[in-house]
Amino acid sequence: MNKITDTVTLHNGVKMPRLGFGVYQVEDGRQVEQSVLSALRAGYRSIDTAEAYFNEDGVGRAIRASGVPREELFVTTKVWNTNQGYETTLQAFENSRKRLGLEYIDLYLIHWPARGKYLEAWRAFEKLYREGYVRAIGVCNCHEQHLNVIMQNYETVPMVNQVELHPLLSQERLRAFCRDNGIQIEAWAPLIRGQLNIPVLWELGRKYGKTPAQIVLRWDLQHGIITIPKSVHDSRIRENADIFDFELAEEDMRAIDALNRNARWGPDPDNFNF
User: Which CATH class is domain 7-192+220-231?
Assistant: First the structure.
């Protein structure tokens, strides 16, 4: 993990960047375009969006304006809960692909395991994957039981599980389950939505000459977790990428691990109604 372009190999052989750029709650239009362009200029090559973010159009415009060759990029988007199902998922994918202006998507994710719907969505995902419209398929916000149901009913094991994960919600049991089944864990809200006023993180920041955010992102990478911080500020976007010139000592990794409180900022995947 020496540079921003370092990748992890998913179980189907596709290489995915370890550090990506998220655009959750980034407004479509100028804000998302400038943010994505800043990220690409800073060296990020993985961009994570979703149909429910309502900014796929702007992400696509920024990609085209950047001049970065398509084969160097890794673009993720997601199907929203109301569009899960077989035919509806296929149509949602086509709509997302057109908004992004791309011939294929690198990673397509089920946004939440909508009860009674996500299995049919996965059937559509397998079709898209077989036909080459997506290079990898996966899920978000899935506990072990959701993943087991998919694996028991379909032949394709999800390549990625994107979940809320940060020092206050370290998800160790889920990480172990995914590791045992070849599923790559990816963290959303890795920076605890800005709630970084935690003494241990500040102490480690002083030790390494880094910010608490940089400490957390490095913790992610050293645990083998793909992470996708977001920002609309060019300086912060660059700062979040400046994590490849140091390594956390084992005792410092354990100190951050000990912060876990199983504290969620987002909904529990077992109890949501949207």
Answer: alpha beta
